[in-house]
Amino acid sequence: MRFFDSIIGLASLVVILTACKQNNGNKEAAAKAGADSAVVFLLRKDTVNKQVTFPAELIPLERAEIFAKVSGYVGALKVDIGDKVSKGQLLALLEAPETVANYAQANADVQTARSKYLGSLDAYKRIVNAAKVEGTIAAGELEKARSLMMADSAALNATRSKTNAFAQLKDYLTIRAPFSGIVTQRNVDPGTLVSAGNPKPLLVVENISTLRLRVPVPESYTAANAETSTINFTVDAQPDVTYQAKLSRKAGALNLANRTETWEFLFSNSDHQLKSGMFANAILKLGRKAPTFLAPASAVATNLEKRFVIRLKNGKAEWVDVRNGISLGDRTEIFGDLSEQDTLLMRATDEIKAGTALAPKFLKQ
Predict the structure, then answer these.
(1) pLDDT means over runs of 10, the chain (365 residues)
(2) pTM for the complete prediction?
């Protein structure tokens, strides 16, 4: 009997314990029933390094559009497109008879004024010598001779200045290369009438021994640092060849039209294998000086008012405003009032309102 009583007692204890366990499980399920579960992750900082390709353009180191300073006819053209020229080399000669005639007339006026001045100067010196004998020359006569000499001197200087101006205009008839380079455009022929108002230049000279590679970098990348001072780039004409250029300067300001900053790189083009005006694909390797917060792209939500992530704090959702940085494929850089080890929702949406109770389901990054 005692054996059977023990068996019955043990069975009763098992039933009681099972009932208690089921009751506790039901309580936990009831507690969780009021809060939806959400996949979350712990926010961490990481280094940011990214290779980005931007469209770029090759332009010459120097480019000069050469216009006529004075009106005239093209008398001789010494170069054509593709010709290499040196600094100071004669490019073209213009013919303007009236300019030459004005210069000749101005030269003659200088000679006349000079002769007049020398005559008045000599007369003044004679009067000064005669005036040394007291009572020989009246004071008024001496002053009159001096004034005439000064006037003739001023007239001589004026004619000389006028002659220099006509000489400068005459020099404009000879057109020379402003620097060493290559002639890339020619828009006139011998006999063409040209003037300062022509819309097209006579010639265009470019220095393409060094090319400028100008890269428009979007605003979000301008604070990033290039890993090296060199950049790789390709051109459509030779897509299988990779060239290198060295960082020269940054604009220091954004273009308000497209919100980009121009970064300029220099490429040594001594053998002229690349042409100015070519479009290029520039490959930049960018990074941050210090680690920053990285989050899955799905963790950042955007509506008409703000961009935000949802942080889980004390079991409730909290919206935190953020700004995006560099995008790394499925992850993006975020900046805001955040700390390491913050619990963020893996998928943020404005359907989850602030204060909503959520049960976290952790996901390893």
Answers:
(1) 44 45 41 68 86 92 93 92 94 88 84 88 84 74 85 89 83 92 94 88 95 92 79 91 93 91 94 92 85 90 90 91 85 90 90 89 68
(2) 0.66
Q: Is 21 inside any structural domain?
A: no
Terminal-residue alpha carbon distance, the chain: 63
Stretch (H or E) spanning 167: helix 139-171
Residue that terminates a domain, selected from 287, 319, 350: 287
Residue 7 placed within a domain: no
How far is 317 from 363, CA to CA, in rounded Å? 17
For 5, the enclosing helix (H) or strand (E) is helix 2-32
Domain co-membership, 279 together with 352: no
The Cα–Cα gap between 135 and 141 comes to 12
Longest CA–CA span in the chain (Å) reads 175
d(CA 213, CA 245): 7
Q: Are 335 and 323 a contacting pair, CB within 8 Å?
A: yes
